[in-house]
Amino acid sequence: MNKFNSLNKSYLEQRKAAHETCRLFAKSPSKGNLKRIKGLFTQCGEGVIIEAGFHCDYGSQVQIGDRTFININCTVLDAPINEGAISIGDDCLIGPNVQLLAVSHAVSPTERLKKENFTTPITIGNNVWIGAGVIVLAGVSIDDNAVVGAGSVVTKDIAANTVVAGNPAVKIKDI
Description:
seven-stranded mixed β-sheet; five-stranded parallel β-sheet
């Protein structure tokens, strides 16, 4: 896990700009505003569809592959440093109200008073289906062809070609 201070003036400005872009898209999900959202990302592939209500903190470390669909009200808490990257592969389906949270805070009350954020990348492989209301925590990798059942909380890596569900998410079966 790597640290950064989200109260740093430069980071506050970056976050404010990204939030404004997201607000404009939520208010008017036009092609122009979608283009602005995609412009925040390090990479955004061909044929990516993002529905209204998308929110990210920075966007500068988000990578999305080709033909991925992100449904309504997706929240992506990325960080402005490489270690806070969120990578989504090709042909993924991200359900409504999904949260990808690459940023967290210290558990120790004394450490938390420093207001620093901790970040670890999230990596989502190709052809992954993440159901409605799923929460994916920092440091998690979800390998190719995996399915995450609706409402799950993903705290650990998920192997390729498996179905997981629950809180915390556990393997249900192989595909």
